[in-house]
Design brief:
Two copies of one chain form a homodimer.
Chain A lengths: L5 H10 L5 E2 L2 H4 L17 E4 L3 H14 L3 E4 L16 E4 L6 E4 L4 E5 L4 H9 L3 E2 L12 H7 L6 H4 L6 E7 L5 E5 L11 H5 L8 E8 L1 E2 L5 E7 L2 H14 L4 E6 H10 L10 E7 L8 H12 L4 E5 L2 H12 L1 H6 L3 E4 L9 H15 L5 E4 L4 E8 L4 H20 L18 H20 L12
Parallel strand pairs in A: 2-4, 3-4
Antiparallel strand pairs in A: 1-2, 5-6, 6-10, 7-11, 8-9, 8-10, 12-14, 12-15, 13-14, 13-17, 16-18, 17-18
Pfam families (chains A, B): FAD-oxidase_C, FAD_binding_4
GO molecular function (chains A, B): FAD binding; oxidoreductase activity
Protein name (chains A, B): FAD-binding protein
């Protein structure tokens, strides 16, 4: 990619307030990578740290005029390289747009794209309200990034994913036009459903600057169940049994390797000898450790659970959830990572987990697994030695093979992280030529110059 | 619109099995109108009653070749003229495609587009599962139509609308290509979110032939509350108060005119003297007439309810729900109808209802109101005398003015029925030129010839 003309860069800097436009390589360097640490990332020519939608529009108009690629960026916590920089491109950072307004009467949050998920949750909680979507990274990820990937999380097994909570969006299109879609209306079917087209489009169709998010009444107190199993297969079969009749508010799985990584990183009292652990919660109001948890306990026993622990103490429950949430950082301390996000229909969860074990053996790599098991969505984490070319090669092949095996099972290469740049190669295999062609038509209609996040997804 | 060439029609008939292609005017006449009885509807040249997706593809390919407009049609229960026929066009009826398969392990229903909503509910219930979306017309509307309009219903105040339950779609595109989007995976973000683009697109972007619908465990027993109020405003204020802290599973409003229409049509024991009635249900498990209903009762009392009745008897509760559901047929017996579907953010519900009363007075027309009040979605029903030109003119003006007043309040011209043909005129006023232009770009990208449901929505 060519570098933008220096005169054009000077024009951009002059058109925006001091400090918004950054070209100092020491600073722009920090905007190269997201959390996927994709080594194919380029070096941006310029970073715009927009303070409002009008500045986003100005930057996009400039980029359109000069045919400069634009990579939108929230908190940089993406796991698929969706905000990896492009050589000579413009990184459009939303990090400064963090305003949050809670409308208690309408039960919505009006949120700028750079606000963190945890900040929205906190602001809602101050009014007795709740924003459910909860990626494990909720303390460090932005709402804009959540919308870009249609992020999931732990409670979405019962409460759905990001798109289910998006009522309205302000979006800057590829020509700099700002459109407002939807709003504070709970139901609105006026016109084509364009709103939903932007949720999960990974910045390839437009740049979200603001969102109206649906809030719900605060979650009821949760009862927590922890069950250990001799192996992953037994735990997976318990998940299938639970999901056949129940709708827990959390149903997570950790395998032995991830349990031990967590215990090494921060001792939480997990059973290091367990083959797998299920962490489930029920928030069915008023029942506490009642009916739903008892049914889950019975399903786990029938599937061969070796130990079962139930509590309705919120702090005790949160400690186990925290153990689950720190799994990725914990595994990160054991090597370089390639994070998977493959999924399958829930009944095929045992097959998917078995396939992952086979791939680990075939390529001689470690692949600890954590999973939003109740959704059939797994995070196999391929660990490799960053300094060892052979290790990295085997990891890369295993990463690819895990996606292929998910596709073979009728699954998906990504349940919630997005395709970004690191999973793009297998997308045509999953979707097939007709859906790829349809995607391309939509992309071309909305971004005919192809300046929005080029190289991501398609 | 020109008529298709007779030789072309003969080709179409020859290419499909006997009885699929219908050109007999006595028969095609029955496919002119949907339930909106839009008198601007045209007369189709041909009706294709497809038996499978391949026949839909064949018909669309034929239409593309001969530039014949295609109006997709489910059960013909639409309320906005979305399946009104076009002169010289092809009506593509899905009425014969009714197969339903329940996958209990994945908790999904795989459903052909012509299956009725009630049939899907029934098939799911046989396995202890539940398909929540419940338009009042659920016994006579098709899943394909529900998907086309992103239909709502009574329980969506807690359980969401159709799009929240669509996991997968088979869609025939404007060139006859069949694409499969999504599937039995609960979470899947691989590629652009095209699936959601078709839910609510009213047959203008493609023709849905099959859907994978998410099912949930059977609903818990419901407690029912009926509250009467001296006037609509007091009832609306009670709704706002309830929604500030609670998430009931139903929150419906009827005004005095609709109460009396129901009592005239089928006496149900409703209080004819009430200014308005709220019908609420709670399905918070295990609480029966417990906490949630008690809180609703308190909110209604504070807002000035004159009578309050609470029951946890399911049959008694269902009787009130039935009274609400038959309101439209009941009002239909009192004159010709123009059905509104305007909505507003919930806190503005009192203002929207007041505006509707003002419009009724200004244009000297009767506008009974029923409302999915908990969603801010109202159905003012403009009643007129079909034989009286002046009455019809005033009704038409009032119909338009109600939409305009909703827009003025930051509301929508349609919450769940769709724009179709009868609400199209005001769509640009609601969306503005930029969103209209964006809509047109998407439409042109997917249907460059403009053969899919021309005249609807855009």
């Amino acid at each position: 990619m060519d570098q933008p003309d220096p005169a054009a860069l000077a024009d951009l800097a002059a058109s925006l307030p001091d400090g918004v436009v950054v070209t100092d390589p020491d600073l722009t360097q920090k905007y190269r990578l997201d959390r996927s640490q994709d080594d194919a990332a380029g070096t941006p020519a310029v970073v715009v740290r927009a303070e409002d939608a009008a500045q986003v529009q100005a930057a996009v108009r400039w980029a359109a005029r000069h045919a400069v690629p634009v990579v939108p960026r929230g908190a940089g916590s993406g796991l698929s390289g969706g905000s990896s920089a492009v050589d000579g491109g413009l990184v459009l950072s939303l990090e400064r747009m963090r305003a949050i307004e809670i409308d208690t009467e309408s039960q919505v949050a009006v949120v700028e794209a750079g606000a963190f998920n945890a900040e929205v949750k906190q602001a809602a909680a101050e009014h007795g309200l709740w924003y459910p979507p909860d990626p494990s990274s909720y303390e460090i990820c932005s709402i804009g990034g959540n919308i870009a990937t249609n992020a999931g999380g732990l409670c979405c097994v019962k409460y759905g994913v990001t798109t289910d909570y998006v009522l309205g969006l302000d979006v800057v299109l590829a020509d700099g036009t700002l459109v407002t879609l939807g709003g504070k209306r709970i139901k609105d079917v006026a016109g084509l459903p364009l709103l939903k087209l932007f949720v999960g489009s990974e910045g390839t169709l437009g740049i979200v600057t603001r969102a109206v998010l649906r809030l719900v009444p605060a979650q009821a107190p949760r009862a927590t169940m922890v069950a250990t199993f001799p192996n992953v297969d037994a735990a997976a079969r318990a998940v299938v049994a639970v999901r056949r009749t129940l709708r827990p508010s959390m149903l997570e799985l950790m395998d032995r390797a991830s349990i031990n990584a967590v215990e090494d990183y921060r001792p939480m009292g997990l059973d290091r000898t367990a083959g797998a652990l299920l962490l489930a919660q029920s928030d069915a109001p008023g029942v506490s450790c009642g009916a739903e948890v008892e049914l889950m306990r019975a399903a786990c026993e029938a599937a061969g659970a070796t130990e079962l622990f139930v509590t309705d103490d919120p702090d005790e429950g949160e400690m186990f959830v925290e153990a689950r949430r720190i799994a990725i950082p914990a595994i990160e301390t054991t090597g370089a990572l390639m994070l998977e996000d493959v999924g399958a229909p829930v009944p095929l969860l045992p097959d998917l987990l078995a396939a992952i074990e086979e791939v680990a053996a075939a390529y001689d790599v470690r692949i600890p697994v954590i999973a939003h098991a109740g959704d059939g969505n797994t995070h196999p984490i391929v660990v490799y030695d960053a300094g060892d070319a052979d290790s990295e090669k085997r990891a890369r092949e295993a990463f690819r093979e895990v996606m292929q095996r998910a596709i073979d099972l009728g699954g998906t290469i990504t349940g919630e992280h997005g395709v970004g740049r690191t999973k793009k190669e297998l997308l045509p295999t999953q979707l097939g030529p007709d859906v790829m062609a349809l995607s391309r038509r939509v992309k071309d209609a909305l971004d005919p110059q192809g300046i929005l996040n080029p190289g991501a997804v398609l």
